[in-house]
Amino acid sequence: MYIALSNYIQNFIVKSIHQLFASIPLLLVFFAISSLKAQETAGNYIADKKTGTKVWFKHNFEEDSVTWTGPSKAGLAEGFGSMVGFTNGKVSSGYIGFMSEGKPHGNGSFWFWGDRKLEGNFCFGEPLFLENNLIKKLEKNIVSETDSFSTYVGDNARTHLYYHAIIPEKNIRGVVVLMPSTWESTEHVLSSMSAFCALAYQNQLAVIVPSINQRLTLTDYSITLMNTMFSHAIKHYKLPKDKFIIGGFSMGGILSMRYTELSVQKPDACSIHPIAVFNCDGPCDLANIYNNFKKKYNKNPGQSEPIYGMKELETYCGGSPDSAAAQYAYFSPFTQSDPKGGNAQFLVNLPVRIYGDVDPVWWMKNRHVDMYDLNALDQTAMIQFLNDNGNTKAEFIPPPQITPHTQHTSKKEKRKGNSLVLIVIAPSIFKPPLS
After folding, report:
1. What is the dihedral of CA 332, 335, 340, 346, to 10 degrees?
2. Alpha carbon of 242 to those of 28, 72, 109, 314: distances in Å?
3. Which residues are bridge partners to 4 per DSSP?
4. DSSP states of 292-335
5. How far apart are CA 198 and CA 168, in angstroms?
6. Is the dihedral of CA 278, 280, 284, 286 positive or negative?
């Protein structure tokens, strides 16, 4: 559960990043993230009963029949045309635009679930809503044709591993790595961060999104894969190796922090050494999150999240926290029970930002959970540990003046939010106002 912050925050922060690049020798990047809920890309094909041409629908659609008016290739919708989807004989969705392999691909307009509408660019069924100039600049770099450990799932049965990259044409000032959350596609990360990507490009910041959306633990394989992607990008695009910032959403936040810690603890184990790290509402102490999963499961055994979480942690940590405490401590960015903070001790000299969703009343009323179920307890404990140990650049950031779980604010609220972000980030460096 990470925060949906509105686009104005993205716009403000990327301009602040640009100032930081221009004014200090080390790249100190701190930014709030706007992101939507992660999307899984599994689905199935439905054939037009008259023509036999197949069209693809995502797994959460209930369509049981379809018509396609347009060309086809190898039995799948291909090229420009129109699609109408039906559920129990009633029209329930429609699409007009380009298709490839039976999936929306290219410019198109898709409506569904009554008044829901997606309009813009698609990439094999996934919305890819970037500005047109960025669509042309976006590159997909395959680093492996196989995915033996199911590191990236929901990719329409594809098995290759890759990273998406948006690279400025010249004078690259730095690199921002965005790590997806569990089951989130790289296209979804780019779409939900479209404003950030546009301004990053304008300000000579490269953006990289690795195809990693599984593992709550930074396994040796994940380290090798990340190193391979980063090394390839550095060589292929001539990126500045000493100006990487890494961060991510939920699961991606865990991996980002743990990789950064490892780069300090064992520099030779990592191909980059991030000079700042952020975590957007990702757990910090895996033993505590396991116990929270267990609590949720006992309360409601039908929930899929705790089942997935417990199985994932038991598999890669070798059991529960009671039977494999050392492994949980190794994989956790922070260990609350350890006076030394566990792996957090390796971040005492680096800028760290954790963005957490702290609104207990909302969670109690709408999700029937209390503060013990939120990641914010461990997140704030980790930041406090870093502060107590002399890290003045470690901060916990709640969404300023934004009601959690909403994305729409008034102009007055936006201006007020901008001012608050300006204050909490780096008042000694930034010169307000930024438009």
Report:
1. 30
2. 12, 48, 42, 36
3. 34
4. HHHHHHHH-TT-HHHHHHHHHHHHHHTS-TTT-HHHHHHH-S--
5. 10
6. negative
Question: Can you give the pLDDT at residue 16?
Answer: 40
Region 401-409: what's the mean pLDDT?
Answer: 39
Cα separation, 198 vs 134, whole angstroms: 7
* Region of residue 180 (left: phi > 0; alpha: psi -120 to 50; beta: else): beta
Q: What is the pLDDT of residue 400?
A: 59
> What is the share, in percent, of the chain residues with pLDDT greater than 70?
81
Peptide bond into 433 cis (omega under 30): yes
Cβ atoms of 241 and 234 within 8 Å: the answer is yes
Q: Are 241 and 233 in contact (CB under 8 A)?
A: no
| DSSP codes of every residue in 58-112 | ETT----EEEEES-EETTEE-EEEEEEEEETTEEEEEEEEEEETTEEEEEEEEEE
Structural domains in the chain, sorted by start: 7-40+131-285+332-425 (3.40.50.1820), 43-124 (no CATH)
What strand order describes the sheet that includes 394-397?
139-144, 161-166, 205-210, 174-179, 244-249, 276-280, 352-355, 394-397
Element (H, E) at 254: helix 251-265
pLDDT in tens, 87-128: 999 999 999 999 999 999 999 999 998 888 989 899 888 888
Amino acid at 213: N
Q: What is the mean pLDDT of residues 245-263?
A: 95
Q: Identify the pLDDT of residue 125.
A: 87
Residues 6+ apart with CB under 8 A from 121: 106, 107, 108, 127, 128, 129, 130, 132, 135
How many distinct helices (H) and strands (E) make up the chain? 12, 18
Q: Which two tokens stand for residue 200?
A: 């990053």
Closest CA to 282 of 38, 9, 28, 15: 38
Average pLDDT, the chain: 82
Amino acid identity of 372?
Y
pTM above 0.85, yes or no: no
Which residue, 368, 358, 364, is CA-closest to 402?
Answer: 358
Spatial separation of the C-alpha atoms in residues 20 and 200, rounded to whole Å: 13
- Mean per-residue pLDDT, 160-165: 96
